[in-house]
Design goal:
The protein has 254 residues and is an alpha/beta fold. It has a single domain (31-252), classed as Rossmann fold, CATH 3.40.50.880. 33% of the residues lie in helices and 22% in strands.
């Protein structure tokens, strides 16, 4: 009688243990991501598509997403709730001095930062005459200054570092369209370059020769910049989706 009872209870107990284990693992892996976006008209279509995309990405990868265009959310008290800050199309000059200071503190604390596309608009080109330049952010980006980009067009990205977790699962090469941001010089030597764009596959504004488009500044524990990301069609590109997913998971990792 007891043996029969144990046989009936055992499968149920095992299921309970498994479910409990899954829940515990989910709680262990769960983290919060703050995505702050720009209000610039050039990127509104991409930003509109980004909200459901990142919410779905979070649901599939067990992280919570708060998505906003309210830069007042960039403050010490609010940032303390998050492990990763995604700067999506938000340029450094779109933030007030206090917001810049809060983000700088967040990065210096070793938390994760993922910059996408217009987040890389370094330099004084867009600043008012009396605006104090955020030099720290230029150094954070590897010491380069943004230069006007060419027309939106397709090109080939070459992944040169498959050892980094953010690019580990990417192919050696992939095709994607973008504005292919340019800078005053190559960032190589100041950062760890993960991928470059092949300049022979599109028409540049000013050829850079060595043209990194994805990199991480290893002076900071969890920083990655991805210059690709102008168009909402990127979210239908499986390689780009994998890149964003792995970049965020790496940025949140311990």
């Amino acid at each position: 009688m007891i043996n029969k009872l144990l046989k009936r209870i055992a499968p149920f107990t095992l299921i309970c243990l498994l479910v409990t284990g899954f829940k515990a693992d989910a709680q262990h892996r769960n983290f919060k991501v703050l995505i702050v976006v720009s209000k610039a008209k050039d990127h509104l279509k991409m930003i509109a598509a980004a909200k459901p995309f990142f919410e779905d990405l979070g649901a599939k990868n067990n992280f919570d997403v708060d998505f906003t265009d309210d830069t007042s959310k960039i403050n010490d008290a609010n940032l303390a709730k998050y492990q990763v800050f995604v700067m999506l199309q938000l340029a450094p000059f779109d933030m007030s001095y206090s917001q810049q200071a809060a983000l700088q503190k967040f990065a210096l604390q070793g938390k994760g930062w993922v910059g996408i596309h217009a987040a890389g608009l370094t330099g004084k080109e867009f600043l008012g005459k009396s605006t104090v330049y955020w030099q720290w952010f230029q150094d954070f980006m590897g010491g380069v200054i943004y230069s006007p980009h060419p027309a939106y067009q397709q090109a080939t990205v070459i992944v040169e570092d498959h050892k980094h977790p953010a690019t580990l699962h990417l192919p050696a090469k992939f095709e994607i369209s973008d504005e292919w941001y340019e800078w005053d010089k190559s960032v190589r030597g100041n950062v760890r370059v993960l991928a470059t764009v092949d300049e022979s596959t599109y028409k540049q504004n000013k050829p850079m020769g060595d043209h990194p488009v994805i990199w991480t500044n290893e002076t900071y524990r969890r920083m990655i910049y991805i210059s690709i990301g102008h168009d909402p069609s990127d979210f239908a590109n499986p390689t780009y989706v994998t890149l964003l997913q792995d970049a965020i998971l790496w940025a949140a990792s311990k």
